[in-house]
Model the fold of this input.
Amino acid sequence: MNEIVIERATDEDAAEILVLQRCCWVSEAISNNSMDIPPLHEDLPTVRAWVQESTVWTARRGGRLVGAVRGTADGTAWQIGRLMVAPDLAGNGLGRRLLQHVEQNAPEHTTSFELFTGSKSVRNIRLYTRAGYSQLPPDPSHIPGVVYLSKPNAINSDRTAILTSVVNIRVAAQTDLPFLREHDSHISAEELASVVQRGRILVAEDSGKPIGWLRWGLFWDEIPFMNMLTVLSSNRGQGIGRALVTDWEKRMSRAGHSQVLTSTLADESAQNFYRAMGYTDAGVLLLPGEPSEIFLRRDLEPAPDLTDPHITRE
Done:
């Protein structure tokens, strides 16, 4: 495969991508016993549109298009799709090479990679599993007959650990209320003041300026539950959220808790951030007319018997 050249796709590649896409997904339709597969029904304007809107790479050998892959940023997740290899070259490592290429060229702030494939696409699932991807638990929001997979971006995890070493994380004070009221509109000003009084908000600051916060409560009056994790848009992609969660977990462990909980909507990429940090699915809440709410939990490592004056167990 040394003669393969991988480069960014342009509008001029769209027609060839469309032809190759249809050739590749015919076998997917046969494997999954369904012709209701979007790649088989897209037209040239549609393909041209996602070539322009996403980041797409082509693989050519001797001028012939033999492969392609697409990456699309969704918050801190890097959505990988349309990974295709000419049928006569399948099994020669080109798919693995394209997958590695799209991962290596993800945006710097990427914390996880996400993709999906047909539940009966054995070869695809094997490729992704060998590349370190794990299947996500079934969810009502998932398309029937489709397997969803993800994996954390280990390179970015190391990078963000360095970036966050200069960020200070502390318990919020009354002086933080103007900042919190401006950015956290999910609860009333009165309740926000009460949560601050209880010591249940952590603030991340850079050079004395707040740039993010984490707010929590107690589920069943016993288990720490993270209600809100937010980093200002100008400071995202730097590991601040990861640092806040890690600091909170350590405080909860020192307070004697053995586990923590949080939740996120099924249509939000935050779930992959939490899974990358070791959280596992614990259940789903279904409400009429809304996406399902995924509950996640994590066991905490035992900590020395130290008392944190800012934390009380009620």
About this structure: The first strand starts at residue 5 and ends at 8. The two ends are 63 Å apart (CA to CA).
